[in-house]
Amino acid sequence: MLRLLCVAALLAVLPVSLNAQCEEGVTVCKEADVSAALVWQEIEYFIEVQNMSSCVMTLLEAHDTLLGPVELDLPEMLWPDEDGAAIYQYTIQPSDPDPLVNEITVIYEDEFGEPHEDTASVVIDIIHPSFTLELDCFSPPPEPDTDAEFQMLVTNSGDVALDFVFSGFPDSPPPVSLGPGETHTHIMLVPAIGDMACAQVLATATLPPEYGLTDTFDEFAENCCFAVPSRWSHDPSQGNLVCGAEGEQTEAATAPDGEGGVFLGWIDGRNGMYEVFAQHLDARGVPLWATDGIEVGGGAYYQTDIQLAPDGQGGVIMVWHDHFSGADDIYAQRIDASGTALWPTRGVQVCGAAGDQEFPRVLGDGMGGAFIVWEDSRNPTAVDIYAQRLNASGDALWAMDGVPVCTAGGDQSRSRLVPDGQFGMIISWEDERADVGDVYVQRMGSFGTPVWTADGVALCDLSMEQSSPRMVSDESGGAVVVWLDARSGYIDIYAQRVDPDGSERWAEDGILICNGAPGQLKHELIADGSHGAIICWQDHRAGNWDIYAQRVSGDGTALWTAMGVPVCTAGQSQQHPSVAGDGDGGAVVAWEDGRLQDDDVYAQRVDSEGNVLWDTDGVAVSTAAGSQLGHCMTTDGDGGAIIVWDDSRRTEEDIYAQRVERNGYLGYPSAEILSVRDVPGDQGGQVNLTWDASYLDPWPENAIDHYTLWRAISPGRGAVPAEDAVVLGSVSELARLPRSASEEPPDHDGPVFLPEERPRGTFYWELVATVEAYQLEAYSSAVPTLFDSTDISDEYHYFRTIAHTADPDAYWTSLPDSGRSVDNLAPGAAVALAANVDGADVDLTWSPSGYHDEDLGHYNVHRRETPGFVPDGTTLVGTATDTTFLDLDPGPTTWYYRVLAEDVHGNESDPSNEASATLGTGMDDAEIATVLTIRGNSPNPFNPTTRIEYDLPESGRIRLDVFSAAGDLVVTVEDGFREAGRRRVVWNGTDAAGNALPSGVYFARLEAGEEMAVHTMVLLK
Fold first, then answer.
1. What counts of helices (H) and strands (E) characterise the chain?
2. Prediction pTM value
3. Strand, coil or helix: what is 284?
4. Distance (Å) of CA 579 to CA 68, 86, 603, 949
């Protein structure tokens, strides 16, 4: 359900009285009204001065706090009759749409020439009509590549007519005009992509012109999508096929989408040439773009060396080198989350200079644009490093064909880049200006100007070769750089940290990370979140290639075992490691593994202390037939990773992917909610929640201990923790709450909440049930709701389930689903209705039915002059919360009555039996007391309704108040002009706010002119 608020303005009339007095307190102006009609762009005032007293007055001036002095076009003399009235109209421009207080002061002289002044305030507030836009998905998850049916319900809950135009999804309806309270339903079919179908709606609302509004109000609804089960495989021999098109797919590259999913790019040979294709997998492993991906850089020539980076706006920027012009040039494309290319077809040319431009690297600038660095051969004698910055539209912000980063002698290659925290970047590369590889760095400002020494700063330029620099940001404006170093005669790993000013932070020529003989290769690193880095590499110290890792702190101290901790030392060779942060100071490491002869993909997680957390020598990510090579990896945002590789199980290489979550399990071990449905035939207050078990629950896994069920409502609806609530910081804390002696689910004082920050606000998930695991395939449980769906509120509840193991830190949270409870049972009909005449009134009494009365709200009393009538809105005369009702002075005739019970959710019973009463001409005025008198109340004691009867000797204004025993005013029962005679009024035992009062003594005080009468009443429950 999605709600959209359309802010607009209503006309409002705001009356204010101006009262003035003559000499000796004689009222000169009993009635003088000021009113204002409000529109969006101006406020219109009407001042009416009407002299209805016996005095003569001369209006001298009027003053407005917003406008200053106001010249009113009024008669000079206002006489004591209606002809003396005058009206003046003027307008003001409000400074803003907030509530406005405006004072109007009128100065006049009375008939004796005495000046008088009177001031009145007008409070002006803009009233906001609203409309509600709801998207309800009633179909089950669609079959792959079929249409899904969405039902859209639009309700105008405002006070004025609104015109709607809808767009943004297939088969948009024509414009719709809705009056107040009217609804419109539209059925639309949305093509499914795989098992996913989403619709996004743009609604434009326009007020009619008479309300002074010329603008329309555009609001986007969120995507309405089917919550489909996870597509991730749980079997390492399977995995998820991303692209299996004809021809070869290879050179996969990835970038995180920021929502737990991944953008993928690869080089694709389906069209007989090598072209760039891409796909977007969501966090559940569902492909969001076309089957087998979308074409990004197609053309008559080949593309290769693809790289990806998030664009900071929910999409991705892709770069590659392209042979379109007969030489290798650099191209780029930006694609949004839905798969729409935002830059020109085939991408924008980043550099088309003479010679070849190859091996691009890309870094998003966080604003929809990107920094791009590449190796450039426009100088025919050497390879240099050039760079360019593109804005969000794909326009080059620096010089055409890029700016030089380094054009020193010799070749520069293998560049890397990281942000500098100042809208620029730091670049590292391997440099052969001294005829042997060295490591250099440079910082480029946001305008493409080098910040450090021209052609870069040497981090290590020893005589032996330093090569293959890798780099991450130190998160302080500098960088950590790691390289392969041959200074010892073997290939070792060294590192250096460089400050934002280009100075070295650690030892000159770097610090040793590992020098285990005979050598180390294929190093990669990620930032550790504490200004240091985690480095992994393949290591030959044991006679074959193994995987090792080390963490180095911000001050250059190795934090784990000297020469690194073994990540995998299984038989055969493990090579080509990749690494992704786990968000907790540790890392997930993946590699290509030969322990089963073919090259497979394995992974391991290492915590911040250097401890391996998963199976010894890692968990199998893919062990399918054939080889799995060229893998790359990105974080899943939840302690795990998504790994993508080139796969030859089907002869030609295809692209496969797999998710390994934070505990080392494949895919999503969470449960999947199947349905949230109302429990039929009940009094509401609960729904039936059904879910598929975690795949770790049934045999042979048997890893799930229990499930917890959680409930939330939309932010801002009042579902916040009470004072006695337990508010958790994480799911793991749940297991640490005290348990009862029987070891049932956690036993504690007060409810348990788990806050979750979302774009729409904070969801407070409340624990509502715990279900023990019994190795079943599916489960079902009735869970309570906070309220039922009614005409007043049809809001949904949200539910999710968490699968727990015996380890408090090993749990999995399902996707949420929503549903509503409904009170299906109306109360039974009231019985034994009796009507008794009491003077000019009728006392009604009845008995409850005893059936389905647990949630009884009140009784509706109906009356008509004809027997056998059917109760409807025209016959309702009042309501009662108990089984009595006093019908005051209905008039002299025979009346027929029926009573209907209504519960708190609006379900109404069948009518009661019919009762009648015949009334005469009323009470005898001769019995009216000659002084103001409260004759009493009946019944007394009462619960909760009583009738107060009093005598009023003369017509005039009266006020009847009820006070507590402490003397506090509880409620004003009557206040206004009344004719002389005997009067009756009913008080229902509530205060001015409608709250039921407790038992006790209360005092009724009646005032009329100078007279006053008091009576004691007893409320007894």
1. 0, 76
2. 0.66
3. coil
4. 72, 84, 9, 86
